[in-house]
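I hope you will forgive my troubling you with a question about protein structure. Could you please explain, in whatever detail you think fit, how the structure tokens follow from the sequence? Thank you for your consideration; the sequence and its tokens are set out here.
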Amino acid sequence: MFKNKANSRNNISGSNIAKLRKSLPKPNSQQALANRMQLLGIDLDKNAIQRIESGQRFVTDIELKAFAKLFNVTTDSLLDG
């Protein structure tokens, strides 16, 4: 199956998500982010966060919207390269 990729990544938001996660107050680990996402009703674990940030996993529109809400940014800002 053909996959759409941007610079060999499966998403363009992962690096921005990683930067925003690291700017959060401690704890700002991938596990802590997964826990915060679960409080928003998004079922992600630490491994999914790692794969999103590294570009190995696609990000759904529902997840992108939740990340934007959690970080208090627009979805467009998550997609800016």
